[in-house]
């Protein structure tokens, strides 16, 4: 199966989309913050990024969901900064401290084709939203040079539905977080008071584009949506609210990745709720409720003391890879 962007490029539309996205940066509304700053003139909004894409690292990642990592690894590119600032972010060094370097489109394109040459199954763009014009510009260049693996849009869920609409025919696999089922938690932990509306609306648009069933060939995902949810300690209610919204407003056929790996970072080490790992009981309550609701495509994790947070000060951020 060829990735969707190959056809779009053949029709001459991929360049138009890249140009449209680049133009949006002149009064940036790439995400719901709608900062309306001119990033092409060097102005910066909430994400603190100008018009140039910025990345921390790229690697064959074997720790994503099995359908994404397969045997060759996901071709993961970690983009710097973020359009959210979650106090417990597991990628704190790149999202808050903005570790990374700016990169031009040809070098980013080369990284993509290198990942393909190394046997990766996809291009897994992590926190891509503020970098979309650069990402799609580089994808166009890489596609002209033979890139033929799917693009995975691995985002935080705080998305502008109209911008996700511009990715129709470009992205084959959406991998959004659905972090919160209520805006109190979203506000307290991530500083945004309209997360639920935007996440639900964006995921509905993703499903409209690629369907609610994950298409898998030889154990490797080719097209579809996987919704990730990180269970937070002491906030099982939030997780259950997320499940209710997906069931009510989207689909129980969606693949869910219910994650147990939450690890307190230094900044929340003494937080009354977030200063510990999730318990087995908390995690099982969420997974069992999902099963009771009729979700049966669920990626699960063990609850363990293993620290799965990356360290972006290392050459390879994941200690076990
Ligand atoms: S991408 Fe950055 S500048 Fe643009 S709206 Fe979002 S936070 Fe603001």
List the keywords.
single chain; 321 residues; alpha/beta; TIM Barrel; 11 helices; 35% helix; globular; binds iron/sulfur cluster
Description:
The chain has 321 residues and is an alpha/beta fold. The protein has helices at residues 4-10, 13-24, 66-69, 92-95, 105-117, 132-144, 161-165, 183-190, 195-210, 236-250, 280-293; strands at residues 54-61, 74-79, 101-102, 123-126, 151-154, 173-174, 215-217, 220-230, 255-259, 298-299. Strand 4, helix 6 and strand 5 form a beta-alpha-beta unit. Helix 2 (13-24) packs antiparallel against helix 6 and helix 9 packs across helix 10. Iron/sulfur cluster binds next to loops.
Task: Summarize this structure briefly.
It contains eleven helices and ten strands. It is of the alpha/beta class.
């Amino acid at each position: 199966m060829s990735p969707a962007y190959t056809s779009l490029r053949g029709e001459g539309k991929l360049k138009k989309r890249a140009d449209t996205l680049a133009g949006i940066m002149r009064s940036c509304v790439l995400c719901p913050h709608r900062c309306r700053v001119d990033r092409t003139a060097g102005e910066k909004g909430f994400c603190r990024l100008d018009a140039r894409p910025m990345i921390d690292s790229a690697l064959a990642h074997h720790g994503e969901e099995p359908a994404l990592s397969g045997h060759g690894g996901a071709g993961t590119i970690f983009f710097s900064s973020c359009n959210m600032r979650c106090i417990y972010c597991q990628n704190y060094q790149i999202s808050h401290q903005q570790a990374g370097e700016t990169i031009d489109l040809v070098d980013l394109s080369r990284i993509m084709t290198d990942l393909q040459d190394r046997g990766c199954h996809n291009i897994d763009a992590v926190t891509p939203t503020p970098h979309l014009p650069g990402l799609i510009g580089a994808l166009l260049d890489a596609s002209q040079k033979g890139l033929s693996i799917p693009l995975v849009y691995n985002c935080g869920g705080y998305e502008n539905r109209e911008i996700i609409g511009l990715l129709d025919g470009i992205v084959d696999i959406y991998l959004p977080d659905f972090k919160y089922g209520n805006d109190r938690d979203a506000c307290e932990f991530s500083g945004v008071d309209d997360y639920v509306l935007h996440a639900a609306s964006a995921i509905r648009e993703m499903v409209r584009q690629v369907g609610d069933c994950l298409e898998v060939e030889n154990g490797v995902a080719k097209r579809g949506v996987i919704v990730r949810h990180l269970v937070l300690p002491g906030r099982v209610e939030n997780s259950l609210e997320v499940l209710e919204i997906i069931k009510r407003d989207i689909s129980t056929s969606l693949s869910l990745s219910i994650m147990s790996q939450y690890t307190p970072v230094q900044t929340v080490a003494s937080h009354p709720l977030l200063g510990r790992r999730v318990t087995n009981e908390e995690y099982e309550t969420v997974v069992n409720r999902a099963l009771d609701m009729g979700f049966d495509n669920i990626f699960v994790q063990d609850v363990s003391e293993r620290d799965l947070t990356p360290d972006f000060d290392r050459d390879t951020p994941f200690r076990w890879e």
